[in-house]
Design a protein that fits this description.
With 237 residues, the protein is mainly α. It has one domain. The protein contains 8 helices and no strands. α3 runs antiparallel to α8 and α5 runs antiparallel to α6. The longest helix has 26 residues. The two termini are 19 Å apart.
């Protein structure tokens, strides 16, 4: 039953995300086609998918991983509301960074817990992957955010956030190198970082190209989906 329910939710998620892209109206600046409501609906569908999987896994040893991923995805949805300026906060970018950052702390805790509990904690593999991704995040932040004129405190706040996302990717890669069932999780974490770097270039470096906002979501949406679906992967281990 749980597999069928997850498939239904993933189909619904795809209809919201890709349907909004295919059938949405192009905005006057030519930055997006996806309406805000389809983007938020796709994100909320993943929240439901995460907590549904927790419901199926709560009687097993996978429940801690599932609940932490559920918390992370819920915080990601709150971050989406901030970034879409649907929550009352003047500094909506700061609110989004805060929510996403807390969500990634939950993702990292989930990966550490599962790795430690299931023997996927080989130190050299784990820390090598983390170091590589931290370097990628640092270079990405320097190229996209730091090398801009008129830097503000928000530019510097973006550094620990980028390193936090890189840490998520590092732990996910460490798991994937020890068990290939986590390859989709690692891809999801990498896509999340990539989407964030594009968004950072848009916000801090005034990068613009045709449908840039949709491109961000076409990386970000599948990233969150792959992270949420990692709950299902842990049940078979």
């Amino acid at each position: 039953m749980e597999h069928s329910w997850l498939i239904v939710l993933l189909v619904l998620w795809a209809l919201f995300l890709f349907g909004g892209f295919l059938f949405g109206k192009l905005d006057p600046e030519h930055f997006r086609r996806m309406p805000a409501w389809t983007r938020m609906a796709s994100s909320f569908t993943l929240v439901v998918a995460a907590w549904s999987q927790y419901g199926f896994a709560r009687e097993t040893s996978d429940s801690t991983f599932a609940i932490l991923i559920g918390i992370g995805m819920t915080l990601g949805f709150i971050g989406d509301l901030f970034m879409a300026q649907l929550l009352p906060m003047k500094e909506y970018v700061l609110g989004g960074i805060g929510a996403f950052g807390l969500g990634h702390i939950a993702y990292i805790m989930a990966q550490i817990h599962f790795g430690n509990q299931n023997g996927l904690d080989q130190p050299s593999t784990r820390w090598s992957a983390i170091i590589v991704w931290l370097l990628i995040g640092l270079v990405g932040w320097y190229m996209v955010v730091y090398r801009t004129p008129n830097r503000t405190p928000l530019h510097y706040a973006a550094l620990p956030y980028a390193l936090l996302l890189s840490t998520t990717a590092g732990f996910a890669t460490g798991l994937a190198l020890q068990n290939p069932v986590f390859i989709p999780l690692a891809i999801g974490a990498a896509l999340f970082l990539l989407s964030d770097l594009i968004l950072a270039a848009r916000l801090f470096n005034n990068l613009h190209f045709y449908l840039i906002d949709d491109v961000v979501w076409l990386f970000y949406g599948p990233a969150q989906m792959l992270i949420v679906c990692s709950i299902e992967s842990t049940i078979s281990i």
